[in-house]
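Researcher: I'm preparing a figure for a lab meeting and need a structural model of a single chain. I don't have an experimental structure, so a prediction will have to do for now. The sequence is pasted below. Please return the structure as tokens so I can convert it later.
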Amino acid sequence: MALPFLFAFKGDDSTCVIRNKSFVAGENVTFYVFYTLAGVWVHAGNANFTVAPSTLNNKSVYHIVANGSTLPGYDWVYKIRDRYETFIDTATLQPYKFIRNVNEGNYKKFETVTFNHSTNTAITNNGVYKVPKCVQDVLSEVYLARNLDFEGRKKGDLIPFDLFLDNEVYHMYVRYLGKETIKSRYGKIRCIKFKPLLLKGSIFEGGEKMTVWVSDDGNRLPIRIESPISVGSVKVDMMMYRNLRHPFTALINVR
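Model: Understood. Here is the structure written out token by token.
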């Protein structure tokens, strides 16, 4: 869908290196997207995230693809056909290339961004832009965030980030909300909970209105996302996973 995970994190040091400990090439995760219609949650769309090994300019990268769409029966409400791609360094998780091809209602956007981290620039369809160190795109940041260490953080702590989107740099943050156990289709799952500061877009409202839960284990797997949208509310639930890097130990009560 319109990618709901708009948050990213700065590296822990001046080299912007964050080691990947949470995912592996071959991971495949599917989400169902539910909308409220007349106060009832209905399954109106799907989203799928895949990670594949690849090379780009002779560098080893993860090629990550996110596809999202409304189900045909709900296209009349708000038709979505979105595809995001990012190519990130396997050693540092820094993005090299980002592709966005979105079709949301009457809004269409195709964009390619190439990041040059040695010159701190981003080359887009419209020109060359200066960007800060450790900048991320809206898909690479999801996987970078899954490697963030939340240990030692207090409820309410803010985690800053830099995001490059639509030829602009945004200085934003995520607010840590602690830990919570939630019910899912698989059973009860121990989760880490936080709120990302969102940019106002064609679907999502701006501000701290979205809540995200990720598994409290080595995978940091997104489990649920809830947010108000321009009309009603949306809930995104993880419904299928394959090839996780670690055992799914956050699942404590299997159905």
